Amino acid sequence: MGTVAAGVEVVGHTVPDQERVLTPDALAFVVRLHRTFNPTRRALLERRAARQRELLAGALPDFLPETRHIRESRWTVAPAPPDLQDRRVEITGPVDRKMMINALNSGAQVFMADFEDALSPTWTNVISGQKNLMDAVRRTIEFVSPEGKVYRLQDKTATLLVRPRGWHLGERHVLVDGEPICASLFDFGLYVYHNAHELLRRGTGPYFYLPKLESHLEARLWNDVFNFAQDELGIPRGTIRATVLIETILAAFEMDEILYELRDHASGLNAGRWDYIFSVIKKFRNRPEFVLPDRAQVTMTVPFMHAYTELLVRTCHRRGAHAIGGMAAFVPSRKDPAVNERAFAKVREDKEREAGQGFDGTWVAHPDLVPVAREPFDRVLGDRPHQKHVLREDVRVTARDLLDVRVPGGRITDQGVWNNVSVALQYLESWLGGVGAVAIYNLMEDTATAEICRAQLWQWIRHGAKMEDGRHVDAEWYRSVRDREVARLADERKDPSKLYEAAEILDRLVLDEEFAEFLTLLAYDRLD
Predict the structure, then answer these.
(1) What does the alpha-carbon distance between residue 344 and residue 328 come to, in Å, rounded to a whole number?
(2) For 106-131, what is the mean pLDDT?
(3) What is the average pLDDT score of the chain?
(4) Catalytic residue (choose from 48, 87, 97, 163)
(5) 238: helix, coil or strand?
(6) Nearest to 313 by CA among 271, 346, 371
(7) Which of 86, 187, 256, 446 is the catalytic position?
(8) If we measure between CA atoms, which residue out of 369, 362, 519 comes closest to residue 453?
(9) Active site includes 446?
(10) 483 classed as catalytic
């Protein structure tokens, strides 16, 4: 499209329906958001970097003394709107047209359409995702498969939430004053501009999930963005609602403060378990006492994960907010019922634990898991939409509890090293090919799980971690596993070019002396 206004240039190649999404008024709106709030965003990202330097120098996080009055005073968030009262099962997935229809029809109470970890942010995916949301809001979305099967929305569908990309990401296909527009504001702005009034007309509203926050100041920025957008669009303040993913170790120390900053717009907190594990590795990567075993052994019952979820439920219910549990990522097998039975039993056990802790709902990645996850919550909730009355006043979580990364019986195994290499390779290959959520070994893998894989490999090599057989994980061992896995996977492909590109990226992520903050930042320029 080229230069469309002073200082604004669209450099992405023209894709279908781009003119419908990037109208002059919509683009002007997101540019105003960017110019108003990007300076604060940049300052907060600098603050993140400074905080990381402190942690690498040996500091440990703690609850903030300057916000003690917020934690100790009485206040609550705004009441949830009617269609966000019952959230017992939420399904997540990318903004792919067919997947969106299936998710909205899945029987879950909520569907989170994801521009972040489940999306490979090609320009085509980003623009088509916004078009798909516009059609979903207006209930005109449909999809016809190559075989002629037609997918349409049922009469009753899940409540729609949207997850924009995190504060750290830019959208390089739109330049404002010579720099990429903030991806968070681009995703949020286009959705709210095109759909806020239509959503309200239909009795719902613009609802969001906010990812990767590291402090209450980042939540304050989102709150300022919400107020600005509502004023610009002429809708009442408080119309926008947001659930925050607590998926970084630093945010776990500021749950009260995050809800407080967003209290007129907050609907709850979510235990984003995969990114949370990645965050612990990343933030304390130079400390040998924070080396974790195989990712499959880092369950929700190990001390630091249990403490964080206990604190999340207590914090949410004390403030009148929903507490939403973690992801069940299993993808059912169409060939092996025994695999499914074992996996369903584990999912059921996980959701029974969450319902017993006091969570009001939980996440799944596949429609077949909706009834499995609902059953434990139905037993606990009955006809109630949530269990905010369960205040969990018995919970006392200290900073030491949140940092207790012991994993009883945990070990690093050959299988764990191979799985991390294999999953990271296959996910990066898929992501480079434009698909950001992919089933690998019966698990739905996204950016968050790939981040754990590559971060563990880097951590194990950095610290010469000892495997269960006494060998140490080193760069030579990684390369041998990588070479064998690349050869095996290449034999299964007609065109392994993306796989070889994935291996090149993974080598940098695993072997570079400096730890890459996000794999998406390293690989983004390779996308269309």
Answers:
(1) 10
(2) 98
(3) 97
(4) 163
(5) coil
(6) 271
(7) 446
(8) 519
(9) yes
(10) no
